[in-house]
Amino acid sequence: PAGVCPQNAMVQAEIVDVHNAFRRAVQPSASDMLIMSYSEEVAASAQAWVDQCTLDHGAPSTRLLNYHLGENLFYSSSLKSWTDVINAWHSEVERYNYPTGSTNGKSIGHYTQQVIWNSSYKVGCGATLCPNNIYYYGCHYYRGNFRRWAPYTPGSPCGSCPNNCVDKLCNPCPYIDHYINCPILKNTTGCSNELVKAWCPASCTCTTEIIPIGRL
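Structure tokens predicted for ShKT domain-containing protein (216 residues):
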């Protein structure tokens, strides 16, 4: 149906708006939360996975662009709006405590992946009707959920990006670091090194924007 088809521009706007509303509302507030936008390339990856009707996460190799994407999945015996689906992922907030994680050992990955990970700033989604009338939804994201890393920096909204702020969310650096330790490599080896320059374009190029993926 057109109301849930991710190729529909209004559906894409719904997906982005619901995510960003939750990102603005994190507690404690985030100083470096990036504004999320829709990616057709990421969406193609998500659609390819849900079309297989495997009601479980795939191997990381099934969601690989320049690096592994994060993944949230949802299925239901009845048609749901994307707002309902994203709300279901967000509901894990009830058992999440910043920054330590789950309060009861149950899953919080859907929530941290798509709502409060500051660098998960691109989303793309797919939906399909599987056998036995199962509606299957999936979204892929520029990845978050790095172990031993806090999902964002607490502080006043946009405190870390005062010159790159839109409605309490930060505009991201348009480049992507391929390694989480790029800020360290920039300081220790330097961007004059060709390998550092190639693998850490965000750290080497952006000085005022929030850098996606890896951060100190």
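The chain is about 30% helix and 15% strand.
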